[in-house]
Design brief:
Layout (H helix, E strand, L loop, with lengths): L3 H7 L1 H8 L23 E6 L5 E5 L7 E5 L5 E6 L1 H10 L3 H4 L4 H14 L3 H12 L6 H13 L17 E2 L11 E2 L20
Antiparallel strand pairs: 1-2, 2-3, 3-4, 5-6
Helix pairs in contact: 2-6, 3-7
Amino acid sequence: MHSLITAVAAHDEAARFLAWPGDFDLGQGDHVENVHLMSGAALEGFAGAGAGGTYFFCGDGGEERPVLYADSEGSAALVAIGLPELLQLLLVAPWWRGCRAFTEEESCTLAAEYLEDMPDLTVRRDRAAEVLGLGLPTEAEALSRLHRVATETGKDSSWSSRTRTIPTIRSSRAEPGSPPRQVPPRIGPAPCQRGSVSGQPRG
């Protein structure tokens, strides 16, 4: 079976894109605090983010397992069903964590900012997707899928985590010292018309 973890490790170009702007590092699988599933199923940390977040496979199996993301603030949510879906999200919308707290217009602004800093972003992204053998959804499709996974699949108690906030995304507007509220991610599913880095569907 084709292993995407092995493929990322074997292709420097893909690994570099996923490291930045994807902020996804296979060398960082240890989380800053304990994270547990309500079902008691195993969690396997396999990658991390620069800000201290960690990606976990849920349950038993291979790279097809659901992926939980836990940040360094104690919040956690399902973000993908399987590693291919996660990498597609990171390739077409590497700013996805910002999208969970911004409006649709702000999501488009983030895309434009990334393109301003990295004019070759789409070229690098396409090359990374090609060496990994991944088709690219559009930005709208990837963010819409993320929203469904985080807010619908994540409601299943089997995949709820026991961290300081469970299991959805912490509101960025909470007052200092107040308990975190469990709020659904705010993701703008509409594609950006200007400065878009959306991929085109492939086979």
